[in-house]
Amino acid sequence: MTLTALGLPSVHRPLAAQPAPTSGPLIDTFGRIATDLRVSLTDRCNLRCTYCMPAEGLDWLPKDQVLQPPELSRLLRIAVTRLGITNIRFTGGEPLLVRRLEEIVADASALQPQPEIAMTTNGIGLARRAEALAAAGLTRVNVSLDSVDAAHFAAITRRDRLGDVLAGLAAAKRAGLGPVKVNAVLDPKTGRTDVVALLRFCLDEGYHLRVIEQMPLDAGHSWRRGEALTADDVLDSLHGHFTLSPDPRPRGSAPAQLWQVDGGTGTVGVIASVSHAFCGACDRTRLTADGQVRNCLFATTETDLRELLRTGADDDAIEGAWRKAMWAKAAGHGINNPDFIQPDRPMSAIGG
Ligand code: SAM
Ligand code: SF4
């Protein structure tokens, strides 16, 4: 794939020969600046979505390898005060399985300059915690929901928990964690009908639907090009039922291409991570639950900040290692290249 196809300029990388900067924004050799930090709080989950986890689950990270709240707190402080991170999104695994989540959110929210704090969750348990999370400083949630049909939902997630997710969504709306977004990864068999019902449901409830193309990040490495539904398939399925027109607002670094529905009664976003990669506008850096920095979802190398933390490294050393990790970010994910290698870690262990 060419750089142009990735949305990157087809020019050389004038910065490539230089070492990573020691101050300023968190930049890579293509000039992209990371301001959005995705933090995976745990690799554990209470669902088993087919495109993410095997039915039997995975070998979870041993407890002593997972960052302790004070370690995480230190890394978040470095990210915000030294590296220019303005947005933090907690994810997992399932972040609501973390007992001290409210404390972690409150801690991050107290940083200056105050970052915007969001969470991606499957919504199970959110009904009980949405108020407390909002009070702690959480501002927005994305709740993953792939079908509003209970049987389809159970087939996709291998758990009969649709009611819990819907209750979580409603609680998020009541708690003001909005705009509440719904993330959907469509099943190749039922997705074409699921997406129509999902959009109707989201329009009725005032949630913003974002449909994400399935990516090769499943633990079983069973993703096959040609089987997963593409952004074009999604739009085709919706066109028969809704009038969609391109949203005129500039997209910036947002991964979703937005469409206005039926003349503006709502919007739907389609994230074409595979068929129309948007790596050229990527502004993300990632931290796994065991303290590894990843410069891309699809990176095959990681930088171990936990080891630095636990061997007495000072803030300068940790900042330097994080900068160096991001400096080495590749042009794009390479899914469409013949020599693409799927990362060892599945999505649940990276943090989507
Ligand atoms: N458990 C939480 C949830 O499901 O929202 C947070 C973690 S989950 C890994 C984050 C997001 O990644 C979810 O919206 C999920 O649908 C998405 N995801 C997981 N595996 C994926 C894959 N193979 N391709 C595309 N998206 C995926
Ligand atoms: Fe769990 Fe989220 Fe993966 Fe589903 S997508 S198995 S909810 S981590």
Explain what the structure shows.
- With 352 residues, the chain is α/β, with parallel strands linked by helices.
- The chain has one domain: Aldolase class I (TIM Barrel, Alpha-Beta Barrel).
- The chain is 29% helix and 16% strand.
- The strands form 2 sheets. The chain has a 12-stranded mixed β-sheet.
- The longest helix has 15 residues.
- The protein starts with 25 loop residues before the first strand and ends with a helix.
- The chain binds S-adenosylmethionine (SAM) and iron/sulfur cluster.
- S-adenosylmethionine binds next to strand 5, strand 7 and helix 10.
- The site of iron/sulfur cluster has 13 residues, from helix 10.
Q: Average pLDDT, to the nearest integer?
A: 92
At CATH's second level, what is the architecture?
A: Alpha-Beta Barrel
Counted up, domains total 1
Please state how the strands of the largest beta sheet are arranged side by side.
9-10-11-8-7-6-5-4-3-12-13-14
Question: What distance separates the N and C termini?
Answer: 23 Å
Provide key terms for this protein.
rSAM, 16% strand, 12-stranded mixed sheet, iron-sulfur, GTP-binding, binds S-adenosylmethionine, 29% helix, binds iron/sulfur cluster, single chain, 352 residues, globular, 4Fe-4S, alpha/beta, Aldolase_TIM, 10 helices, TIM Barrel, disordered N terminus, two-stranded antiparallel sheet
Précis, in short:
The protein is α/β, with parallel strands linked by helices and 352 residues long. The chain has helices at 69-82, 101-109, 126-136, 150-157, 162-174, 191-205, 231-239, 305-310, 315-327, 347-350, and strands at 26-27, 33-34, 36-40, 87-91, 116-121, 140-144, 181-185, 208-212, 244-246, 257-261, 266-271, 284-287, 292-294, 303-304.
